[in-house]
């Protein structure tokens, strides 16, 4: 187990973005938190410090919490490849997917509990009576029984779920139930995700949030976007001789000169209109479905339209062992398309050895895109939808999970009623590409939707309310 260092950020940075009444409410919540948590520590524990929305949210929320004078810390557990294959199975089951189809018997439970037992001693030395421990997702749920002995308040947060109960979701929840039931409180992103056996008095519904000042979401000019994407070898630059330097919150960031991030080396032309999906190489994100739907619709699209499917370099995401398999499936699927389609379909793996650089690249890609797609089959919340919405991009996404909370169809994006309907996907993308007024209207509505509902002040205030109840 290791601690992730997070530098404090003054709460005023976020407050300055808000209208006066909302900023005052945030400051009041910070004052309540300081008084209530004085002498206590709020611990967060998850499976990885990088490579997903949970890690990104923790980085931002902890920075503001520490800036507000609350002792908040972040620990990442140690686990084997076998452990992460098991927890990925649980992840898939809670989404209603069979995943690898593997068992969840006594042998799997012994493995799960042994890995967490190996992590527990470090926690027992650190956590004190009266502290608050936030355990995130299936990887950490099994720590609840052991941590109760510390006298701390234990909260388990699920960032995943499915709106409807199935045999598969019940199979996954049955494995976790004995641990989750021992938590003092549980958090879900949507009320529909809460299993029937959870005591409703212990439930808080707290959707995720976005920080507008991170490297992934901070403002970038058109020239900065072009420079970054050209230097990274993703999109051919218009102006030539780009510096590759951009800034996030006044701190210069440098993107290294790259080649080979795009499979097959086919860089996107400068004049192309880009249809983009950014997500993990996860079957539930259905990158393969996006590729197939785009290829089928390609003859109807203007000649300058290109598809970019962008995910992390698979070796850089330790808790997602399926990533490499999904990428290879997409690679093979691309090669099956007619040769004329190859040059307009791009698979991109972003490096994970420098997380700031990775975030800059995602930021630039989302700002460059003409349309952003998120054709998930299921989705816990979908920060990959929130991010381009904040940037004012038109988004076409599946009406599943937290995506449907974020997008008001026709006002802040377009929703696909059936994620499997590739024809509907093609029609929706085409309508945005061919109607500039529609694209602009959806983009503006998207930005306003995130500003009103999905910034960090609301998230932090909900945590303070929960801690007061505990």
Question: What can you see in these coordinates?
Answer:
The chain folds into two domains: 223 residues, Rossmann fold; 193 residues, 3-Layer(aba) Sandwich (Rossmann fold), CATH 3.40.50.2000. Helix content is 44%, strand content 15%. The protein has a seven-stranded mixed β-sheet. A six-stranded parallel β-sheet has the order 12-11-10-13-14-15, with helices on both faces. Strands 8-9 form a two-stranded antiparallel ribbon. Strand 10, helix 10 and strand 11 form a beta-alpha-beta unit. Helix 14 crosses helix 17. The longest helix has 21 residues. The two termini are 27 Å apart.
SSE blueprint and pairings:
Elements: E1 2-3, H1 11-15, H2 20-37, E2 42-46, H3 53-67, E3 72-76, H4 81-94, H5 106-126, E4 132-136, H6 138-141, H7 144-148, E5 153-158, H8 167-180, E6 185-188, E7 203-205, H9 222-231, E8 245-248, E9 251-254, E10 273-278, H10 287-297, E11 305-312, H11 323-336, H12 339-342, E12 345-350, H13 355-368, E13 371-374, H14 383-390, E14 395-398, H15 403-406, E15 414-416, H16 422-434, H17 436-453, H18 456-469
Parallel strand pairs: 2-3, 2-4, 4-5, 5-6, 6-7, 10-11, 10-13, 11-12, 13-14, 14-15
Antiparallel strand pairs: 1-3, 8-9
Helix pairs in contact: 2-18, 4-5, 4-8, 9-13, 10-11, 10-16, 14-17
């Amino acid at each position: 187990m290791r601690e992730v260092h997070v530098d404090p950020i003054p709460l005023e940075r976020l407050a300055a973005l808000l209208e006066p009444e909302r900023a005052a409410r945030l400051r009041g919540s910070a004052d309540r938190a300081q008084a209530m948590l004085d002498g206590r520590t709020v611990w967060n524990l998850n499976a990885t410090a990088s490579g997903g929305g949970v890690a990104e949210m923790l980085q931002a929320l902890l920075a503001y919490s520490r800036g507000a004078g609350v002792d908040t810390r972040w620990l990442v557990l140690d686990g084997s490849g076998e452990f992460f294959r098991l927890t990925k199975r649980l992840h898939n089951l809670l989404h209603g997917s069979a995943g690898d189809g593997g068992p969840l018997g006594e042998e799997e439970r012994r493995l799960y509990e042994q890995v967490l037992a190996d992590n527990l001693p470090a926690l027992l030395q650190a956590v004190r009576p009266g502290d608050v421990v936030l355990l995130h997702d299936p990887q950490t749920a099994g720590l609840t029984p052991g941590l109760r002995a510390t006298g701390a308040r234990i909260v388990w947060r699920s960032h995943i779920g499915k709106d409807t109960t199935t045999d598969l979701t019940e199979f996954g929840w049955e494995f976790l139930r004995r641990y989750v039931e021992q938590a003092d409180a549980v958090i879900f992103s949507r009320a529909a995700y809460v299993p029937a056996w959870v005591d409703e008095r212990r439930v808080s519904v707290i959707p995720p949030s976005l920080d507008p000042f991170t490297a992934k979401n901070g403002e970038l000019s058109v020239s900065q976007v072009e420079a970054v994407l050209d230097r990274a070898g993703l999109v051919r630059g218009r102006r030539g001789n780009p510096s590759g330097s951009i800034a996030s919150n006044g701190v210069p960031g440098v993107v290294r000169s790259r080649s080979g991030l795009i499979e097959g080396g086919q860089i996107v032309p400068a004049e192309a209109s880009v249809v983009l999906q950014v997500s993990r190489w996860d079957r539930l994100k259905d990158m393969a479905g996006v590729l197939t739907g785009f290829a089928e619709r390609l003859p109807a699209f203007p000649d300058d339209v290109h598809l970019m499917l962008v995910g992390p370099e698979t070796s850089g995401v330790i808790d997602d062992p399926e990533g490499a398999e999904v990428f290879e499936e997409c690679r093979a699927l691309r090669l099956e398309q007619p040769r004329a389609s190859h040059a307009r379909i791009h698979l991109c793996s972003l490096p994970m050895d420098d997380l700031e650089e990775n975030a800059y690249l995602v930021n630039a890609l989302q700002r460059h895109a003409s349309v952003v797609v998120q054709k998930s089959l299921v989705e816990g919340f979908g920060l990959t939808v929130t991010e381009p919405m904040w940037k004012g991009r038109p988004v076409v996404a599946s009406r599943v999970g937290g995506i449907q909370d974020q997008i008001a169809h026709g006002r802040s994006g377009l929703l696909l009623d059936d994620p499997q309907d590739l024809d509907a996907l093609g029609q929706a993308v085409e309508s945005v590409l061919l109607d500039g007024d529609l694209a602009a209207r959806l983009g503006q509505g998207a930005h306003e939707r995130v500003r009103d509902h999905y910034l960090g002040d609301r998230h932090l205030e909900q945590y303070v309310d929960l801690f007061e109840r505990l």
